Amino acid sequence: MIVRKFGMRQSRQLLAMSRRAPISARFNSAIPTGEPVVPVMPTQEPEPIIQADPVPRVENPLVEMMSAQSQAKTPAQQEESRRSKFHKLGTSVKASYDPENILRNPPKPSQVTLEMLLAAGTHLGHSTSRWNPQNSRYIYGIREGVHIISLDVTAAYLRRAAKVVEEVAARGGLILFAGTRKGQKRAVVKAAELAKGYHIFERWIPGSLTNGEQILGHCETRVVNALDEVLSEFKADLADRPSLKPDLVVCLNPLENVVLLHECGLNNVPTIGVVDTDADPTRVTYPIPANDDSLRATCLIAGILGRAGEAGQVRRLKMAAEGQTTYKPISAAELRLDPFTGLPPGGEAQKK
Amino acid sequence: MAWTKPNVVQAMQSLRLTALPKPTSRLSTLQTHARNSRSYATEAEATKTPAPAAQEINFGTFSSKPARIIPASPAYFSGSPRFIDHVLKLESLQAKYASLPTVVAGEAPRMAWFKLAQFRDYVGEPVPMKKYKSLVKILQRLNRIQPDVVPAEVRETLGSFLRPGNPYAVQNEPATLDENGRARGKGKRKESSAVVQLVEGEGEVLINGKSLVEAFKRVHDRESALWALRCTQRMDKYNVWATVRGGGVTGQAEAVTLATARALMVHEPGLKGVLRKAGAITVDARRVERKKPGHVKARKMPTWVKR
Question: Is the CB of A198 less than 8 angstroms away from the CB of B71?
Fold first, then answer.
């Protein structure tokens, strides 16, 4: 066993050992080998020693600590410098994943990278047996019996969807974020908050669009001006208005929300959906091929779309501050008209 | 769900159709009056006066022009926006103050949260029981924050979910003898309820104005009616004056026992231990079980017949 150390195979190892690895240098003592400890001599600069050393020791906090100690005059100064340097010891973890970060500070659409999508696991599809062949154009390949979604396609479709959200927001549309799976609540609420949109994180009540008067009739609405300030003098005109419909629906789990998407289709409401390899991409207007089973993935996508909506809202309010609107505002006369007949209140009698 | 539509909105609607801004002329008041009188679709149209147009509003400035109709709450499409807004607000509070020290549930101040029906009135939406329970859970967690470090924000929010009048604030005072030296006690057993006035005396007993023997024919009932006095050897120290209503003889006798024991405790609180051991102040909460459909009695099933 001992003899093997001198064999051909181990000689490379030995060579490697003779090299000073940076990690071992880091834990080397500040005192160069063979030299005595000379902390009392102020003329003795530590720098020449460091420069003489092939290993970059300046980064070593221990060295700095020792040198600072040697420079300090009084014991109090010494203590202070020792303390300040001591806290620099240890490691600082840089690239770590904080699950809350994606909720707290979602990335902008312009910051989307394939690495980000990969890290969030958006590329993982379903078992190949469960696929919907309509998704074949989004699929990169198969790995261990699971379809892998092509990330460049995901990124492209995500950017397109983000543009749609931004433009709808800039035109004053109502954007509804729907994610009814367990755990999607916070992502949905955050996205709606950013985009000044609306959220659904519990069951979509079937008929909310097709039978809105019955289901949403009692929910409060308000008239706002272009600057989003509430105009309370029109409150009375809202009484017999039909319930509102969203102008764009973002659905994080289209598989469970077939009814929602169907109602949107009946009402000509465009939809954006996260389409996994087992979902039907034709159910939504703007599919985003991605993994919809990972909360991290859907959270990322919702956050990005929320940021897009935020940008659109900023743009709209900026234009409004200049006295312009990108959409046709509802006029006071229209508000006063009967929404069903288009006549003024009591106007039917006048007409006859 | 149209019934849930707030009356306010309907009222506003009728207001819009009727009471428009009135000029000071007498004519307009007459018109308003005419419109207030009810008209029917079967009446001739000519008799109806057309509704006057709304007064012009000055929309000179950009900011006073309406632009959009939007929902009041981001949870509009959920169908119960107010409830969801409350839940989200409470959850954000809970997350914000999650690090504050808490006390165990028993030491937290007792709070009387809205009952479900009251909460439904409060939010104006038909909230299911299960969802309200989950909201109360958050309230209870917030309430468990150590009382001396509770933020004002949390206190205010919790306060808005309390039912009016704090039922836990009233401390029931210990009963005392009245000016005539009488102690009053109430007791119930089965369907009977008894009120006993106990006064110091020579052991006279009047139950519904009758003597003990007249009131209770069975010796066992007589024994049990005065059991509280007997077990404490106070038979000849107090006079009992009882009113007992409802139920049968046994129930009445045992209701008198409980009422007497309670009244005796007002005179001599030190007897509580003895009375407890003797079973005189233990409430027997059993009642007759109701009969169920499909059963002969409460639980008895009809005899099984093959066909």
Answer: yes
Q: What is the pLDDT of residue B32?
A: 42
* Tens digits of residue pLDDT in A45-61: 444 444 444 444 445 65
**Is B91 within a domain?**
yes
Q: Give me the mean pLDDT over the B256-263 stretch.
A: 95
Looking at the structure, do residues A309 and A260 belong to the same domain, yes or no? yes
Range A186-197 average pLDDT: 96
Interface test with A, best of B78, B87, B131, B134 (most A CBs within 10 A): B78
Alpha-helical runs (H) found in chain A: 8-18, 22-26, 46-52, 61-71, 75-86, 101-104, 114-119, 151-170, 185-194, 212-215, 258-266, 295-321, 332-336, 347-351
Shared domain for A135 and A192, answered yes or no, is yes
A285 and A235: one domain?
no
Taking CB atoms and an 8 Å limit, are A214 and B6 in contact across chains? no
Residues of chain A positioned with their CB less than 8 A from the CB of B16: 236-237, 239, 345
Q: Do A219 and B1 touch (CB under 8 A)?
A: no
At residue B144 the predicted structure's pLDDT band, cuts being 50, 70 and 90, is very high
Q: Read off the pLDDT of residues A257-302 as tens digits, 9 standing for 90 and up.
A: 999 999 999 999 999 999 999 999 999 999 999 999 999 999 999 9
- Is residue B154 located within the same domain as residue B89? yes
> CA dihedral defined by B273, B278, B280, B285, rounded to 10 degrees?
100
- Judging contacts by C-beta atoms under 8 Å, the chain A residues touching residue B5 are 217-218
B12, B69, B88 member nearest A241 (Cβ): B69
CATH number at residue B272: 3.30.230.10
Domain CATH code at residue A122: 3.40.50.10490
Q: Which residue has the higher pLDDT, B57 or A174?
A: A174
**How close is the nearest chain B Cα to the Cα of A231, in Å?**
7
- Residue-number span of the structural domain to which A143 is assigned: 113-204+245-318
Number of domains observed in the structure of chain A = 2
If asked whether residues A169 and A254 sit together in one domain, one would say: yes
Per-residue pLDDT, B35: 46
CB contact under 8 A, A216 and B68: no
Total domains in chain B come to: 2
Does residue A193 sit within a domain?
yes
Lowest mean pLDDT among A118-132, A164-178, B37-51: B37-51
CA distance B165 to A99: 44
| Least CB–CB distance from A244: residue in B13, B69, B84 | B69
Question: Mean pLDDT, to the nearest integer, of A190-212?
Answer: 95
β-pairing, A175-178 with A248-251? parallel
Pair (A219, A182) in one structural domain: no
> Containing domain of residue B233, as a range?
182-278
Distances (CA, A) of B274 to A101, A238, B266, B270: 66, 71, 14, 8
Please say if the pLDDT value at position A99 is more than 80: yes
| d(CA B190, nearest CA chain A) in Å | 48
- Which residues are registered as beta bridge partners of B72? none
CB atoms B77 and A325 under 8 Å:
no
DSSP A255-289: TT-HHHHHHHHHTT--EEEEE-TTS-GGGSSEEEE
**CA-based nearest residue in chain B for residue A335:** B66
Q: Closest residue of B to A241, CA-based?
A: B69
Q: Is B65 among the domain residues? A: no
Give yes or no for B92 touching A (CB within 8 A): no
